[in-house]
Amino acid sequence: MLKVKNLYHSYTKDDNYAVKGISFEIKKGEIFGFLGPNGAGKSTTQKILTGLLPLQKGEASIAGIDVKKPTEKLFNLIGVSFEHPNIYSKLTGYENLEFYKKLFSVPTEDPKVLLKMVGLEDAVNKKAGDYSKGMKQRLVFARSLINNPQLWFLDEPISGLDPTTASNIKDIIKKKKDEGTTIFLTTHNMHIADELCDRVAFINEGKIEVIDSPRNLKLKYGEQLVKVEYKENNKLKRERLSLINDKDRDKLNKLVNEGKIETIHSQEATLEEIFIKVTGRGLK
Amino acid sequence: MLNRYFALLKKDIITGVRNYYFVVVIAVAIIFALIVNFLVPEDTSIKPAIFYHVEYQGDMRENIDEIIMESEREHPNVNRVNSREEIIENMKKKDNSIGMFVTESNGKPVIEFITQGYENKKVINTLVLSMKNSINESLGRKIDVKTNILNKDVEMERIPFNKSILPIFLLTEPTMLGFVLILALVFMEKDEGTIRAYMVSPGRIQEYLASKITLMIILGLISTIVCTGIVVGFNANYLALFGLVIVGSIFSSALGLIIASFFDNLSQSFIWVAAINILFALPMVSYLLPSFAPTYIKILPTYPLLFAIREAVFPTGNVEIIYSTILTFIVLSIMTFIVSVFSYKITAARD
């Protein structure tokens, strides 16, 4: 669905590249997470792929259409949910979607259905300028679905949302994936990436450091440990035991057999820890 | 493409209504019309100076001298010069002046009045008539009187002063209104970031800009109808006036779009907006003081536009100025629109 090869971009049009020769492919129906800290090149890459920045060097195509020469057909295929809400404040939520709907020449969704889906059914006729930040973000999210995009660009889709709303948004993303939508998820939130993405790319200083599934990355970079809490001589003890080390494994078996364990947690690495390990810097 | 254009236009009209653009435009037009009709006097002119030379040496010379001397007593600005050429020279130096040259034809005196062309006709006619009557009365017979106008192209036909400022309003409000109003509209959308959302849709930049220009045309026409209707009623050539307001609006709005593409808010673009506004307002000086029309003012597009608007509001039959101005502005509008599209294509991503 999306092919990127040797993509470069320089804002100053010299050798000072914000994106340095990145390459990756996303298969149809896949959720691809683009993880990196601020200034890593995530937004630049997304802007190039959505036609907001010109493609200076390299190749990129969406469903076979060259991103360098974006056509009306390409824009009918994609949907973009921006991190910062960009809506017409003088129009109502409904009017915002109704206007946007008319820009497309492919079958579109009913604005009211979309507004209901993101929990804005009670604010359909309210001016978008009077929405709260979270409501505006949901409106932008809903707008990006108006043309039933085949490739859906999501930029920090749950940033700033309350847990219930964030959970609803994540459910919609999963549902869309199940329906075959390809999703390009840009974020520095490793939890959402871990939960939703089939594969993630770690981007740092304009370069992709690693691409793999969250599970493989954890297996490759994480340590196989369990953290246990158990009672011994009426005293609560905590210990981290390796699942590879024979001595630790024996001890864990003994604790299990004796029924002394009160809590037990697997201690695989988080994506953030792996990111730090790979790039030497944090995601924030 | 048309669907998108109409969707954009509907969105821009709703935005315009909710930002009170329509209310403000109609209110300003009504206020201006009321000021013109009830507060500005119809006649603000000062009696002009007279330069005269009497070449006639026949038997009525004494009577003519007597009449002129009488005028000199009543009117302090009557000046004797030595030739017709000197009359014209002095008139060119003094804007508010007329000339009188008395010559001879077949042994009879012939009086030629020379006017600038832009004087208040009522004053000139009264002056000429009174002198003509005095001469005829004194000589006891009719003599030939002819009137020569120096600046025929700026001749104003019986337009009261208060109504004569209507073309200035029509130039600054309905026609040039788009220049500033479109900036406000674009800067609001830049602040909202909505142009980025538009740029990732199939919508084209030409449609985006065309809908904004259309809104400015609609506002311009409403303002024109309200103000012109109240001030001159049905006496204007509305078809020509609408044509001029439409092409002028397209030009000024497209120019506003070019400026708006390079800045993010009004304060950043203020110097450019003020400079262009002042530059385009300069022809108003020539309108009010027709003798002051240097080349640098005449080459400004608003110069012919202002006089063409006047011709449309107060028709004198000089339709060429309307046609040529509309044609000029069609060319200018196409050029500025193309430039605005390119400047948006270059700068939109930055926004």
Automatic annotation (TrEMBL), chain A:
<dbReference type="GO" id="GO:0016887">
    <property type="term" value="F:ATP hydrolysis activity"/>
</dbReference>
<keyword id="KW-0067">ATP-binding</keyword>
<dbReference type="InterPro" id="IPR027417">
    <property type="entry name" value="P-loop_NTPase"/>
</dbReference>
<dbReference type="InterPro" id="IPR003593">
    <property type="entry name" value="AAA+_ATPase"/>
</dbReference>
<feature type="domain" description="ABC transporter">
    <location>
        <begin position="2"/>
        <end position="230"/>
    </location>
</feature>
<dbReference type="InterPro" id="IPR017871">
    <property type="entry name" value="ABC_transporter-like_CS"/>
</dbReference>
<dbReference type="InterPro" id="IPR003439">
    <property type="entry name" value="ABC_transporter-like_ATP-bd"/>
</dbReference>
<dbReference type="InterPro" id="IPR050763">
    <property type="entry name" value="ABC_transporter_ATP-binding"/>
</dbReference>
<protein>
    <submittedName>
        <fullName>ATP-binding protein</fullName>
    </submittedName>
</protein>
<dbReference type="GO" id="GO:0005524">
    <property type="term" value="F:ATP binding"/>
</dbReference>
<keyword id="KW-0547">Nucleotide-binding</keyword>
<dbReference type="Pfam" id="PF00005">
    <property type="entry name" value="ABC_tran"/>
</dbReference>
<keyword id="KW-0813">Transport</keyword>
From TrEMBL, chain B:
<keyword id="KW-1133">Transmembrane helix</keyword>
<keyword id="KW-0472">Membrane</keyword>
<feature type="transmembrane region" description="Helical">
    <location>
        <begin position="20"/>
        <end position="40"/>
    </location>
</feature>
<feature type="transmembrane region" description="Helical">
    <location>
        <begin position="165"/>
        <end position="188"/>
    </location>
</feature>
<feature type="transmembrane region" description="Helical">
    <location>
        <begin position="209"/>
        <end position="232"/>
    </location>
</feature>
<feature type="transmembrane region" description="Helical">
    <location>
        <begin position="270"/>
        <end position="289"/>
    </location>
</feature>
<dbReference type="GO" id="GO:0140359">
    <property type="term" value="F:ABC-type transporter activity"/>
</dbReference>
<keyword id="KW-1003">Cell membrane</keyword>
<protein>
    <recommendedName>
        <fullName>ABC-2 type transporter transmembrane domain-containing protein</fullName>
    </recommendedName>
</protein>
<dbReference type="Pfam" id="PF12698">
    <property type="entry name" value="ABC2_membrane_3"/>
</dbReference>
<dbReference type="InterPro" id="IPR013525">
    <property type="entry name" value="ABC2_TM"/>
</dbReference>
<dbReference type="GO" id="GO:0005886">
    <property type="term" value="C:plasma membrane"/>
</dbReference>
<feature type="transmembrane region" description="Helical">
    <location>
        <begin position="238"/>
        <end position="263"/>
    </location>
</feature>
<dbReference type="InterPro" id="IPR051449">
    <property type="entry name" value="ABC-2_transporter_component"/>
</dbReference>
<feature type="transmembrane region" description="Helical">
    <location>
        <begin position="321"/>
        <end position="344"/>
    </location>
</feature>
<feature type="domain" description="ABC-2 type transporter transmembrane">
    <location>
        <begin position="22"/>
        <end position="338"/>
    </location>
</feature>
<keyword id="KW-0812">Transmembrane</keyword>
